[in-house]
Amino acid sequence: MADNYFTHPLALCESNSIGEGTRIWAFAHVLPGARVGRNCNICDHVFIENDVSIGDDVTIKCGVQVWDGVSIGNRAFIGPNVTFTNDRFPRSKQYPERFLATVVEEGASIGANATILPGVRVGRDAMVGAGAVVTKDVPPNATVVGNPAKPIYSDLAETLIEKQSALGSGASIRPDGDSSSAGSMVRLPYASHHLQILRRLPKHAEAGYAELRSGQMFIVAKGAVSIELDDGKEQTEVVLSETSSVQQIPPKTWMQLRASTAEIVLIVARSHPYDEGELILTREEFLRQIALT
To answer: Does CATH number 3.40.640.10 belong to domain 155-292?
Structure first.
């Protein structure tokens, strides 16, 4: 890494692995084994231990301790006095053979005074509310609050979840969350096992992906989204908007999504629980999976 970064005279930076443009402010302490990326902002009174990896464009606000085993992805935001942990059963002078890995993925934000238990993964672009205690993995794009931290949804999402819980497979919903017998109702062909509200598209959706076993129902409640679809035989493109808002996607369908407006609200209802291991992220793997069926 480059050596053209800023260290405040009252900071102690013992690492030689600091990226270009990073700023380390007063009373921060970075141990020799730590790796910090480019254009990061390490604020006052931050402590960074040895077995720590921090990506590019990361902000770590005042009073944060980043212990061995923590990895922080590009563009993540760590709020004031966030507490990371790395030992589930801490005892004085007793250390585990290896500290548990805690991962904050790219673009995630953790609010002030939140506590992150060891071995937890905070997903890409997820949001952890101030003061939350995160005891288990946070899905990508989710917002979690409370102790223990649990996902929260917009009023629209809560309405959809309640309807699905009450009516199960074949439940009818409207994109605006109202109940009615009108023709604008959306009939889900399955009981949704995972409901996601997206206000911006994740990178894998823009680059292209497929779900291995989960069907998906896309419902646009605001703005417009274009989707390129490929089932291995035929390629089509659809545009979803508030006036033509619903598209059902079978599993093993290659998709590329693009936001057509500055603001979107896209609801994704899945027929199976969300599992990153079930995502197909390359076209080569998609074609291989198609050939097996």
So the answer is: no
Question: Which amino acid is it at 233?
Answer: K
**Strand 102-104 to 83-84 pairing:** unpaired
Question: What stretches of 74-191 show up as alpha helix (H) in DSSP?
Answer: 155-167
Percent helix, percent strand, percent coil in the chain, to nearest 5: 10, 35, 55
CA separation for the pair 293, 282 (Å, rounded): 17
CA distance 149 to 143: 9
CA distance 165 to 159: 10
Domain boundaries, the chain: 1-152, 155-292
Nearest C-alpha neighbor of 99 from the set 72, 63, 71, 80: 71
Find all residues with CB under 8 Å of 124, minimum gap 6, and list them.
73, 105, 106, 107, 108, 140, 141, 202, 203
Q: Report the C-alpha gap between 183 and 246 in whole angstroms.
A: 13
Domain 1-152 has CATH 2.160.10.10: yes
Phi, psi for residue 249 in degrees, rounded to 5? -120, 115
Name residue 90's amino acid. Answer: P
Tokens of 199: 């206000």
User: What is the rounded CA–CA span in Å between residue 212 and residue 215?
Assistant: 9
pLDDT of residue 1: 47
Report the C-alpha gap between 74 and 92 in whole angstroms. 34
pLDDT, tens only, 210-249: 999 999 989 888 889 999 999 988 999 999 987 667 888 9
248 DSSP assignment: E
Q: Which amino acid, residue 72?
A: I
pLDDT, mean over the chain: 85
Residues 6+ apart with CB under 8 A from 284: none
